[in-house]
Amino acid sequence: MSSRIEQIIEEIEEYVDSCKFQPLSSTKIVVNKEELEEMLRELRMKTPDEIKRYQKIISNKDAILEDAQTKADAIIADANTQAQKIVSESEVMQAAMQQSQQLIDETNAQAQEIIDKATQDSNEIRMSAIRYTDEMLENLEKIMSHTIDAAGTKYSNFINSIQSCYDIVNKNRMELSPQAAPSSYTQVPEEETSGETTSEE
Q1: How far apart are alpha carbons 36 and 71 in whole angstroms?
Q2: How far apart are CA 51 and CA 5, in angstroms?
Q3: Reduced DSSP (H G I as helix, E B as strand, rest coil) percent helix, strand, coil of the chain, to 5
Q4: Is the pLDDT of residue 190 over 70?
């Protein structure tokens, strides 16, 4: 993080860069005296504080270095102790690592076997479900086809029965009124009857 002195210097530089040149000059600029003096005044006030801070850091240099050396020595000593312990236990560790690797390999093999078996079972269940659904749909298709055929036959018989009754009634009326015009007693059109039968089917 930059100090306040560095910040003030940067502000002065930016201010100078923003000032306009004097007429007919490429080196002299026009500055706001009060604004520039204010920045210089703050610079003079902050300088002693910054110097004191740096002096304090320098005066504590030896203490900081000594503390760092102490911590470094402690870390090195601990590392040496750990290294000696590792060396003395290296054979045990190697055996443990071998056993651990063997256990990992066996576990991976078992896990893969379980996954393969589950995949196979899933595929078999899926194929069985497809076959069962296809059989159900096939049976339903047969039932619906039979129902349609039976309904068509029943409807055709019903129309024929009505036509027969109609013919008898028409014949009886003609016998009762022989003078009536034959055109007033007409038969149910076959085209209309067949069209209704087709519509119901």
Answers
A1: 49
A2: 10
A3: 85, 0, 15
A4: no
Helices (H), the chain: 4-18, 33-59, 61-88, 90-176, 190-200
Q: And the tokens for 153?
A: 């036959």
Residue 192 has pLDDT above 70, yes or no: no
Q: Is 200 in contact with 155 (CB distance < 8 Å)?
A: yes
Mean pLDDT to the nearest integer, 33-60: 77
- Cβ 184 vs Cβ 174: under 8 Å: no
Q: How far apart are alpha carbons 18 and 31 in whole angstroms?
A: 9
CB distance 163 to 197 below 8 Å: no
Please answer whether residues 163 and 142 qualify as being in contact, where contact means their C-beta atoms are separated by less than 8 angstroms: no
**Residues recorded for the chain:** 201
Q: How far is CA 101 from the centre of its chain?
A: 36
Residues contacting residue 11 through CB under 8 Å, at least 6 positions apart? 39
How many C-beta atoms surround the C-beta of residue 8 within 10 A?
19
Q: In this predicted model, what pLDDT tens digit does every residue of 124-154 receive, in sequence order?
A: 888 877 887 777 777 767 777 777 777 788 7
Burial degree of 77 (CB within 10 A; 0-12, 13-18, 19+)? exposed
Residue for token digits 């690797």?
A: 101
Model pTM score: 0.31
